[in-house]
């Protein structure tokens, strides 16, 4: 305490005057300071304990924090040490209550919908850290007192005192640190932490917030501790709290998609108004974010045709969405869309822009109605594509529904990362004899069923066939009966579209047939209110019929 009293009012680093103590913990104290050079500017200055004998570690942490650029994290602006060996970091001063403060003020019971929204934001932050280059960053100390809430409950993650880079192949952390009650088991067992350790701390914090302050190591089934916790939410938290990292969710994006899918249902359970959504409400606010992967069970099944067909049906429903070609596949979309004539002037391929280190957010979008097209360049993607790049691309697309064509690249590492957090996996196949019984097809079917077992929707779609033409023996050979079909489109209709430079799916008779045969898929992925808002079709006069 005497040291603390001496520092209040003192000038540090020749520039910062200490005003008061903001907080303290095992890794040091945090002070409020005014800037003597920039009048009126205030900073949070962290006195970092434990670095006096290890200045290299202090520099490593400071340099790591200096590279972080995220609006929901404090920005490190300066760091220095004194003659006495004390180390300090100067960061943004973030005003607002901590989540722990809010929890106590509300009598230790927060609304379910608020807790889920906070968790979804934390998943975004963890995804940023876990995919940080050149090495992922593991936060390791998530707890309510390290989360601050700003305007509109915007989450700010503070105190990176125990964060560290993840080292591939390392068997244990140099130092095992964490907060009892929230830290993952491996943090206290001499084992290495990784992204799944942060996911455990997220589960532990959710458990704490939803059980009036109980710690995860004391856990009972949540339904016995708090009413109205939906079973899917309780089971997601239980999954995060598995002792073995291999049994937990494997990425922050997977957790985010689980929570996002629960959000609307949770709001209803919590007592928010039921009933059909207003038709006056914008469609984009009625549709929750969805990632739909579309791929073929084997080559030539027609995954691109299926992806475009689904897109044109969503356009008919006035649902904003994007169709993205995964960079691992052989490109088709640009040619199918007659890109030489239809692409906007100065169009830049998003994957190529991203791989060059730039952001594709500011590039000219290729839009047609409610569809945003994101094709690969005709010669294919040139470069190395990392799993984290796929999520950066999804973030740049900024559409509530993303349909990603993965063709047959199921085994690609970046595709499997997406499969783990997809809302829907649509598997396209045709009824050609023997193709489903190929060893490669059987192995893929087994892989897909493993994702279904994890709660991800896997739906089989048959191309070039009507429902009534499916043979029972063929259907029985699949893990599940096909969800819907896409009918065979005649060569004459296809050529008519080609001559006009249009998608054949935009032919009215084709769109009507697709709407009928793919209705089960639309009902599965779209709210009822959206399906009822179908764009009115143009009336066909007797004269126009005569002309045809």
TrEMBL record:
Keywords (A to Z) from UniProt: ATP-binding, Kinase, Nucleotide-binding, Serine/threonine-protein kinase, Transferase
Top-level division of the source organism's lineage: Bacteria
Ranges where the Protein kinase domain occurs: 16-260
Binding-site list for ATP: 46
PROSITE patterns given in the database record: PROTEIN_KINASE_ATP, PROTEIN_KINASE_DOM, PROTEIN_KINASE_ST
UniProt signal peptide: none
Name of the protein described by the UniProt record: non-specific serine/threonine protein kinase
